[in-house]
Amino acid sequence: MTQTTPEQISSALVLPYLNHAVRMYEAGYASRDDIDAAMRFGCGYAAGPLTVLDELGLDVVRDALAARFAETGDNLHKPADLLERLVAEGRLGRAAGRGFHTWADGATVADAESPSADDAPALRHEIRTVGVVGTGTMASGIVQVFAQAGYDVVFVGRSADKLDGVVAGIAKALDKAIEKGRLDDAGKAAVLARLTGATQREALAEVDIVVEAIAEDLQLKLDLFADLDRICKPGAILTTTTSSLPITELASSTSRPEFVIGMHFFNPAAVMKLVEVVTTTLTAAEVDETVRALTAKVGKVAVSCGDRAGFIVNALLFPYLNDAIKLHEAGVDLVEIDEAVKANTGHPMGPFALLDVVGNDVSLAIQKELFAEFKEPGFVPAALLEQVVAEGRLGRKTKAGFHSYA
């Protein structure tokens, strides 16, 4: 195997990730604070990428990227124009008091770009009852989130057994909360009393908002949204928790595109704090604000972005994971890569451990979507990723991926 230091390994993977975050911000796709919050709450990182840049020093990162670009010629390593500009202006990060953030006494402080209390979203549409379509792990978690937050939830599945499975799963989760002293029996009973299962979508006729959480199949979702448009009352908001499919197309299958929006929860939904609120060009401003306010009311952190492949988290995360596979293809041991990243970046797990948790088939599908959207040569899925998926080594769910599991 190629010999390289842990610092070189982590630098080779983290530098393009940081550069990509700068370009995302530079393009106006998402705000500074939302980009940072997305990676903190969506991936469990100690700090978001723009904060990390400030901590490392923008000039240090710029110089390291420039050196890599001279060596590789890879556009992903070419320092972003905004990075060059901030360095030229002397905005070098924490040590200089200003970079992407403003700093004082070693900590970030509010500045003109920071959201204020006056910016807090409000519910512009009344939300009393929530509908959820789906009975899988994600759907069940979303049902639990809303019921625990005090909302009546109507959830729709294909069979009574599927519906019973959702209730049983939530009851089990609530029992664990009771064991840890976070809930009592009365609280559990109250949550379960808010659940209504149904095998017919017509049960959603009077809900105020629907969250779709079915399989990632565009045609299935298009058919569902057309049906929800027929069934749901005027003014009901239709949301999808898709992580990769175009929300604009889902909106186009309805007569109410202004009421269609993305509400991308992260798995497990009951635990993960992040929700990416994804607007299309047709989403009404009051619908966007209502969904962001609702996200806060159920105890989650909302970040805003537009409808394009990967949104914030996946667009930043999966090229980094793909780069890790390519580094392994070049001869670096994958265990060394995992350990180097954990030791030098503070990430909760290494890239190969994470790939196996996500599912290598899921990772490949997302990476293909990113390449199709951005046409960036460096986003071409790694050959080894294609290979492990073809071999059925999908990760923890098949007991074998990049690592093996008993």
UniProtKB/TrEMBL annotation:
<feature type="domain" description="3-hydroxyacyl-CoA dehydrogenase NAD binding">
    <location>
        <begin position="129"/>
        <end position="307"/>
    </location>
</feature>
<feature type="domain" description="3-hydroxyacyl-CoA dehydrogenase C-terminal">
    <location>
        <begin position="310"/>
        <end position="405"/>
    </location>
</feature>
<comment type="similarity">
    <text>Belongs to the 3-hydroxyacyl-CoA dehydrogenase family.</text>
</comment>
<dbReference type="InterPro" id="IPR008927">
    <property type="entry name" value="6-PGluconate_DH-like_C_sf"/>
</dbReference>
<feature type="domain" description="3-hydroxyacyl-CoA dehydrogenase C-terminal">
    <location>
        <begin position="11"/>
        <end position="103"/>
    </location>
</feature>
<keyword id="KW-0560">Oxidoreductase</keyword>
<dbReference type="Pfam" id="PF00725">
    <property type="entry name" value="3HCDH"/>
</dbReference>
<dbReference type="InterPro" id="IPR036291">
    <property type="entry name" value="NAD(P)-bd_dom_sf"/>
</dbReference>
<protein>
    <recommendedName>
        <fullName>3-hydroxyacyl-CoA dehydrogenase</fullName>
    </recommendedName>
</protein>
<dbReference type="InterPro" id="IPR006108">
    <property type="entry name" value="3HC_DH_C"/>
</dbReference>
<dbReference type="InterPro" id="IPR006176">
    <property type="entry name" value="3-OHacyl-CoA_DH_NAD-bd"/>
</dbReference>
<dbReference type="Pfam" id="PF02737">
    <property type="entry name" value="3HCDH_N"/>
</dbReference>
<dbReference type="InterPro" id="IPR013328">
    <property type="entry name" value="6PGD_dom2"/>
</dbReference>
<comment type="pathway">
    <text>Lipid metabolism; butanoate metabolism.</text>
</comment>
